[in-house]
């Protein structure tokens, strides 16, 4: 089986978010970049499935040269080879088009990625790739098993989950607890250095919904502390001051 | 011309988040002059319930009652909404962000060649171009997004607009959709859903507990407070990881992102990953015995004290007031 996992290169979840160039660019000063946490779940499950069924696992990122350490980390975790589409990921449809193009070329049976990136949080790329390739797409998928060509999944819905079945090939946007995150071991890190990382050029696609400027939310005022022996004061404040009761 | 809204329903009721999407579309139309708001509902549901969508600002509801659409089959829903979009001549589709809504919207963006913006927090600015403000970095920032296509899809974040409730009943029309077998290529075999409870992603008040609750057997007092408030219950990641509470209650960066009017956190220290899931709340109350807990910095109101002492007292005080 051929599996493709698409990963994002995003600021660590503990990063302080700031912007530069008159609020038109993300300020990456001092920021550590990681594999998107949801993509990391997708990758972990893909490694398990590849080990179980055999075949090949490819990781793909749409990004400029600075994302290569993130792709190397994915190789260290267990991917067999990597593709970097050499362009800045401008918006969802632009990224989806790149993935669809190279996914079609590679003829994958299963395409996994995170339910959303943790920078733009759109959660739309898997569905777009699905529509572009004429494949079913599912998200957010929290369980995925393969029996022959049948894929059995659980998808999170509001307040519960939905169990479903579909046939390969398909695309899934993943989240926990689909698999446990894998930490690369020394052998993985050593072998990642020599695994193939192919840089390919983007295909053309007009952007449709591109971010043009950024802003931070207004600063939060200081917390109002209420004595633990006077909780009715809190109820009054919630009712009369915050007006949320 | 019209604006189309994809509405979802569960247990015979149109979801509140969908009514917010209708309210949003109504305000959008007043701004852009795009004509009537038309909602599309899929699967079995009473016509009287659909007529009441008019209160939120819809003039008409198209009802595709095909029972195969009762389950949220993503491909079939996307195809049905695409057909409604072309038959109404709409240029804008509005929907509420949700598990199904997101999955359907993404496919529609390609089908309709529409620029799609997710997590929209306010009405677009149309004075020059079409700029949509959306929440990014899990609520830690906002982006102005320029939509350049003629067709547009806006997926609305909860609490982006006030719910409109003073409209007249909507006209409900049957709408027939043509669906192929391929649209039902996936099969939903079963569904597990907490019934009769207030669902966390849609709740207006949330009561959440962390490791400070010491064990799953102590959740009764939080459920009691939630009941008094008509709130949903949530929890921190460690709590769902240890299995004290189910995964769908996990609030945070990799769990459910909530945007209630009131978020009450009990015994949660406030790790940055948890804050990412709650920072869109209007008002945050923190109860923690550690005065140094980082959550106090993100809170509007705080009580430094032991949960086991404070929660029952607070519940009594709420009962007296509500």
Automatic annotation (TrEMBL), chain A:
Organism of provenance: Algoriphagus boseongensis
Family: Belongs to the ETF beta-subunit/FixA family.
Keyword Magnesium included in the entry's annotation: no
Annotated protein name in UniProt: Electron transfer flavoprotein subunit beta
Lineage, opening ranks: Bacteria, Pseudomonadati, Bacteroidota, Cytophagia, Cytophagales
One annotated Gene Ontology cellular component of this protein: cytosol
GO molecular function annotation: electron transfer activity
Coiled-coil stretches noted in the UniProt entry, renumbered to this chain: none
Pfam family, one: ETF
TrEMBL record, chain B:
Gene3D superfamilies membership: HUPs, TPP-binding domain
GO BP terms: fatty acid beta-oxidation using acyl-CoA dehydrogenase
Domain Electron transfer flavoprotein alpha/beta-subunit N-terminal: from-to ranges: 3-188
InterPro entries: DHS-like_NAD/FAD-binding_dom, ETF_a/b_N, ETF_a/FixB, ETF_asu_C, Rossmann-like_a/b/a_fold
Molecular function GO terms recorded: electron transfer activity; flavin adenine dinucleotide binding
Cofactor(s) for this UniProt protein: FAD
Record text on cofactor binding: Binds 1 FAD per dimer.
Assigned keywords, A-Z: Electron transport, FAD, Flavoprotein, Transport
Binding-site list for FAD: 211, 267-274, 288
Pfam families in the record: ETF, ETF_alpha
Origin: domain of life: Bacteria
Family: Belongs to the ETF alpha-subunit/FixB family.
Protein name: Electron transfer flavoprotein alpha subunit apoprotein
Record organism: Algoriphagus boseongensis
